[in-house]
Amino acid sequence: MKKFKALLLCAVVLLGVSCQPHRMRIMSYNIRIGIGMDNNTDLQRAADVIKRVNPDFVGLQEVDSVAERSGWVDQAKALGEMTGMHYIFAPALERSKGLYGIAALVKEKPISYRNIHLPGQEEVRTFLVLEYDDYLLCNTHFSLVADSRKESVDIIRQVVSEYDKPAIITGDFNMLPTSEECHKMDEMWKPLSDTTRFTFPADGAMWAIDYIWGRDGFDYKVLNYEVVDEPMASDHLPLYIDVEF
Predict the structure, then answer these.
(1) Bridge partners (DSSP) listed for residue 94
(2) Nearest CA among 213, 159, 204 for reference residue 181
(3) Residue 222 buriedness (CB in 10 A; 0-12 / 13-18 / 19+)
(4) What is the CA radius of gyration of the chain?
(5) Which residues partner with 134 through β-bridges?
(6) In the β-sheet with 167-172, what is the strand arrangement from edge to edge?
(7) N or C: less crowded end of the chain, CB within 10 Å?
(8) How do the residues of the chain divide into helix, strand and coil, expressed in percent and rounded to 5?
(9) Under a CB-based contact definition with an 8 Å cutoff, are residues 140 and 126 in contact?
(10) Averaged pLDDT in 10-residue chunks for the chain of 245 residues
(11) Where are the alpha helices (DSSP H) in the chain?
């Protein structure tokens, strides 16, 4: 009887823990391989922005890995070391004698991750999925071509549908809020960031192309949303949300 009561108590405790909402700061940042608006490559500036925001997860776009043009630096690893976060690099293609793609920095390591290539008529794109016990954190960088973006929305829907979990996706989507592909995203996702807030170019933003979305069918409470005023470190402005789900 004592053993049964102990097991029952453990089950109740575990159930209570699992029911607790997650409160996280989610950030998206296209770092343009560390090239600032002054055309100087300085990865430390991007790291300083990330440290200032202090996110739990940041989806990074335009990241080099040991490429000649960016000084043979493993940028995801370097940013992880600069910020004290775990890093996952998701290569999309070879470039400048190295690799190029997207990355994620996280405070908590995922239990697994996947890198799924997406179409791009001008260059291959990719989609990064980090799996945790009861949620997904994702990052992507869409093509400059509308047809490829539409195909990417379908691929992402198919991949995420394999999981019965809430999911948040960050990215440089290269699409305007009024575009057909952006409306197509609404079929499975709800915007958690303000899709009308401009993020590009950093020194005089005129377009909204960077977003954070939550998978529809789950509850998200956005507690705060900011586009960070950082006009020098990259050609995109970073953005973040504080969200409870």
Answers:
(1) 99
(2) 213
(3) middle
(4) 19
(5) none
(6) 112-118, 125-131, 136-141, 167-172, 210-215, 189-191
(7) N
(8) 25, 35, 35
(9) yes
(10) 41 50 98 98 98 98 98 98 98 98 98 98 97 98 98 98 98 97 97 96 98 98 98 98 98
(11) 2-19, 43-53, 75-83, 146-160, 180-185
What tokens does 8 get? Answer: 């029952």
Residues with Cβ within 8 Å of 150's Cβ and at least 6 positions away in sequence, in order, are: 180, 181, 184
Sheet strands side by side (includes 23-30):
86-95, 98-106, 57-65, 23-30, 239-244, 221-227
CATH second-level architecture of 24-244?
4-Layer Sandwich (3.60)
Cβ atoms < 10 Å from Cβ of 77? 14
What residues does each domain of the chain span?
A: 24-244
Q: Residue 176 is encoded by which pair of tokens? A: 């305007």
SS3 (DSSP) at 190? strand
Please, what sign has the CA dihedral across residues 60, 88, 131, 181? positive
CB 189 within 8 A of CB 215: yes
pLDDT at residue 20, as a whole number: 85
Amino acid type, 75: Q
What's the rounded Cα separation, in Å, for the pair 169 and 141? 11
Amino acid in position 45: R
